[in-house]
Each structure stands twice: as C-alpha cells, then as structure tokens.
Design brief:
This protein has helices spanning 17-21, 27-36, 38-70, 77-102, 121-130, 132-166, 168-171, 197-233, 237-288, 293-321, 324-329, 331-340, 358-379, 414-424; strands spanning 183-184, 193-194, 346-351, 384-391, 394-401, 428-432, 439-446. By secondary structure, it is of the alpha+beta class.
Length: 456
Amino acid sequence: MAGAMSSTAVPREARDAGERSGSGRSPWSSAVSVMVGPRTLRECLYALLNLPMALFAFCFAVTALSTSAGLLITFVGLPLLCLTLISLRAFGYVERARAHWLLRLPVPGPRPLLAKGRRGLMEWMSAVLRSGECWRSTGYALLHLPWALFTFTMVVVMWSLAWSGLLYPLYFWMLDQRDRPGISVDGTGGGLVWDTLPEALLVSLAGLLLLYLSGWLIRGMAMVDRLMVGGLLGPSAAETRVQELESNRSVVVDASAADLRRIERDLHDGAQARLVALAMGLGLAKEKLAEDPEAAARMVDEAHGEVKLALQELRDLARGIHPAILTDRGLGPALSAVASRCTVPVAVDVDLPERPAEAIEGITYFMVSELLQNVSKHSRARSASVDIWRTGDRLMVLVSDDGRGGADPGAGSGLAGLTERIAAVDGALAVSSPAGGPTTVTAALPWRDRPGRGAA
C-alpha cells in the first residue's frame, strides 16, 4: 500500500539524536562527543550565560515589582506594574530564542494580549494583568537565579579542574615546588610531588575522566533548563489545547472547502454539461420531429442514453458525499460494498456493539475507502483485510495488505490529508510498511454515541 502519513513538526533537538544515543558511533567517538561535541559546547555556553541573564532579570523584577507595589496606592502603581509584567514577558522572548538557539528547544510564543479590534489603555492593562504568560515569565525571572548560579558555578569549577588536569603534562615543568617541578600533593609545598612524566600523564587521565563526567553533568543541567523554559515560558496546557482546536478547525474548514470545490467541479464538468447537451439534443429532435421522424427518434434514443449516464454520474457524486447505504445500514454493509469494488480480495470484519456518531462513522468510511483505493492502485497485493472494533472510548480501525510495502511517511500522499482529518477529531493514524510488506495502517478515533442507535 503506497502512501504515508504527513510529516509532523519535529523539534530541532531531534537532529541531535545521534549525539544523544551514540547509535552508529564507536565508544570513543561517543565519549568525545559527550566531552567536546557541538551539543555539549552549546549547552555549556547556555549554562555560562544563565548567570548574567538571570541576574539582570532578577534585579529588574525585584526592583520594578517592589516599586510598583509601593506605588499601588497612587494612580502610577498599576500602570507601572503592567509595564513591569510586559517587560518580563518581552524578556521571555529573549530566553525562548536563547533556548531555541543553544538547547535546540522550540517553544511556541505567546498569543496576542488583545483580540483584534480591541483598543484602549484599560483593556490593555486588564489583558496584561490577566495574562498567565506574563505572570509565568515573572516567576521565571524570580526563580531562575538560584539555578543559574548553580549551573554557572558547576561549569566553571568542573571545566577548570578538567582542563587543567588534562593539559597538566604541557605545563607541569613550569611549576616550582622547592626546586622541583610539579604539583605538591600534600598542599604544603613539599613532600610527594608529581614531577615525572608518568605522574603527569596520570593527572591528565584524571582530567580526561573529569571532562567526560562534566559533559554528562552539562547535559543533565540542560535538561532541567529545558523543563524550566518549557514549563514557565511555554504555553499552558489550556493554551496549547486552544491552539490545537484552532488548528484542527482550520483543517476541517479547508477540507470542507476542498470538498465543496470538488462537488462543484464534478457537477459543472459532469452531470451539468451532460444535461446541457441533453437539452440541446432534445431541442433538435423536437425541430426534426415533423420533417424527419426517424432522425428525431434516433436523437431521442441518444438522449435517453445520456439521461442514464447523467443519473449514474449523480449517483456516484452522491455516494462521494455520503453514501445512502452507510446512512441506512451502517459501516459493515457500506464497507463490504467498497471492498467488492477493490481489485484484490478484501476481508471485512466490523465488530461494533452499536453505531458511532455520524461524523465518526463518515470519517471511518471515507478513510477505509481511500486506503482500499491505495491497495488497488499501488500495493500489488494478493489480499487485504479491514478490521473495526471498539476499545473503551476509541474506535479502532486496522487496514492491512500483503503487498510490496515501502510506504514512506515523508513522501506525502493522500494519507497526509487523511492524517490531518483524523487529527481534527482527536484521532491518530500510524503506518507500518517495511520494504517487502506487509503494510498495516492503524487508526484510533474517539468513540461518540449517536442519538438514535441502530444495528451496526
């Protein structure tokens, strides 16, 4: 079955998956990546920048919030508080950009404070005070400083010790401990002194191990930074849900508009054009009826054939909008009719205790229809199967074939639009299609009861 799911947005940190897992790398290469790889260097720079950024934000937040709170008894305090909140909100843009650049963490920006058409100082102040993003940015500015101080200190201390130990063989001879080069282990300037090359190499080995541990420490601290930025500067769960619903609504609207354009095109180019030709043919037959009855009869016979073709086209168009068999008898008979038109034998098993809502039933029907069209056109399969059942609050659909497989999720096909339509109703689509087959498409749709239940 050819076809693939639409490509989803992939965070940029996924590009560093090879660095994280070390798959396909030798142990030494993975260790070097942890110690001085691009990801470690980026996250090290992020940790070093934490302190100056957090110190500036903390000082500004404390000073501005204290001043605003002290002036709240006057008419200046509330506008100053709003300016403070909006300034810290702007600081959140900088921190999101820094996380995106160095941590490869894409965090969606906040929604506009004011809806279109709304203006005025009081409305703006009310929107700022009610903005959860403004207050979360303020919390980030106040809470980030202790963590930033810790990350900065750990990076400076660990890397200073690691690099000084690693490079010890290059400079130990310049150190002087009572006329002997090297480091005094007892710390008193005498006694045991590491002043030979083997001892210097031992110190270097310890520095190398410390550098390796520092790399993992930096990565662990970067994970905490990702959680802080995503949790405090990213959208809340409610805002994310609103954005998903708006995106799904736009997908549904676009799909509906495309369906309307298709119906209009089919009517204009198909049945409408055929009916116009039919009307012209009947008009000519009417004119010839008196002078040439036989020619008029032939023209009427041709018109009769055109009427049959026009009726068939209208039936096909109506089936494409919503088939009558689906409305009257449910998914089982409707999908069996679709399977009978497939070029390979298809086994259909619909095990539903009752019929789902009409919208879910329609999406399931057209999804299976499109998948079976892919089987007919591209799969080179000998057989296929369709299984539909209910599990909890989900309607499960499994369409499989024994064809050549090799469906590429990134190639783009009819399944791309299908995935978007299923996601618009909080569903999910998964495709498994290794080279050589078999291909399996699994969909999970939300179960919704219909007001009038009938036999499925």
